[in-house]
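Q: what sequence does this backbone want?
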């Protein structure tokens, strides 16, 4: 069952990526997910990879707000937000970023439209 959720989240990520790119927004997706070997995982951690970093980091500030940028944790309808993810969202918010957990790409697009993207 975990594989189905991962595939669904992957699809939502790809659809949101297309939506953001069509709008010319400066953003990126940290490639933290996915299965990796122990060696690759260790190398990434040594290079600074951090657990729980949000799925979408939008550098372009939201036009309708006074924020530095926007981060989104993208989940499926039943996806769980981990403690690491909650801490990152809190940290971004403390530094002036707009943060949100969105259940699916359409919810993320709707949220972003509300903020003028």
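A:
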């Amino acid at each position: 069952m975990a594989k189905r959720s991962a595939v669904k989240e992957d699809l939502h990520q790809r659809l949101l990526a297309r939506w953001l790119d069509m709008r010319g927004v400066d953003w990126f997706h940290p490639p933290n997910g996915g299965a990796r070997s122990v060696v690759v995982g260790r190398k990434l951690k040594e290079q600074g990879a951090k657990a729980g970093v949000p799925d979408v980091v939008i550098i372009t500030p939201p036009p309708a707000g006074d924020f530095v940028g926007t981060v989104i944790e993208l989940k499926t309808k039943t996806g769980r937000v981990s403690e690491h993810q909650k801490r990152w969202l809190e940290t971004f918010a403390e530094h002036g970023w707009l943060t949100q957990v969105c259940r699916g790409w359409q919810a993320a697009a709707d949220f972003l439209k509300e903020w003028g993207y």
